[in-house]
Model the fold of this input.
Amino acid sequence: MSPEFEAAEGVPSGLIACTLGGAELHILRISPRSLWLRVDGYLPDGAPLVMLFYHPQQGLYTRLEVEYAMSGPVRHENYGASVRLSISDPRYAAAVRRALADLADYVTWRCEGGMERCTQELTDCPEFNDDNCCASLAAQYDEWFGDGAPIAADPQGCELALTLGDPDQWDAFLHRGDASLWTVYADNLGIPRSLFPREEPRRLYVGSATCPELFPELKRLSELLDAAACDGLAVTLLLPPLRAGFAKQMDALMELLATRNQPIELAVNDWGMLERAGKRPDCAELVLGPLLNKLRQDPRMVWKPGYEAHHALFAENSLNDPLFREFLEGLGVHRCEYEACGREIRVPEGRHSLHLPFCHTNVSAWCTLKARCETGNRGAQGPVDGCPGFCRENAFLYPRELKLIGRGNALLMLQRSINTLPPQIDRLVYNL
Done:
């Protein structure tokens, strides 16, 4: 059989990647003898071609530098240019066949048993029992927080903040009178006051990093800002990702903030929102939100082959690159929000916050909880037109070992307690 009959398109870059002259190029098609690449319009003479092949069972990449010859000229098309390279190296052919076999196995497992089958085949993750879950959201919170042990052992020196993330918490804050803010917050959630520090919070985070339906309307937001100002509380607004129809609301929000003599931060969680908010530096200070500053956060990561050998790499992300931090400074970002994810985080110099005890592991554009409550099928998601607020009393519950909870369109992982804080963290944000 000709090797060209073994060609495949759409191979994930995480499985096979390549660089030509040090620049990573997109693979259009690959076979044991050829490689089709999207290029910028020309190929540098004599540039080395390096292939990277992933081994799912070992969690490692094989690096292979190969010789090649162009099979015809560069083809210019509507959306760029492409070129075909001929490669006669038997090591390359063997690596391509193995990678395509791994891809075929993955597709088969997904079709036969979904992600559970893939997890069984590709990781050492134990098989969890779906019956090993709490009976309700209240029971889950009692199991996690009923002991009353502090979430952060020693928050001294940090600015303290709490997140008001739904209408119930907004109302509890607005009608608390002279009661302690921590006490009202704990009573609203049905958890012990002792989870929180003695010192009262000096900042509120208002809204949701994931759901536009959990950002207050402007009238309610004005009430919250007025109440915060009366209590001497600083405010950070958690903005959800920019979606269709939200741009006008964003403009109205900026006009509202421009009329207030009140220092306010905007924690932005997608690049569109950052670009739009950056046009009004007079209204608020910009903060890189938790969805734009995520590390790989998944409780199953520890069972993935290769994790132990490379776990130190999971402590860093793009913020550890000085050029990226310089880029953010140019956009007006003065602070970055991290999340406690259960392992070491290498935090660079600067002004940084830490959200705890929950971190985001996955976010859907639409609400999986609403789909499940209305149709019985969490996959039947669609645009939200009028939110009934299912997430105020309902959640997806998972086997106890995973320490996961599904709220609305977000999957959250619990880091129950923090004993040591990175010295660069100067603000703690409680997000229960």
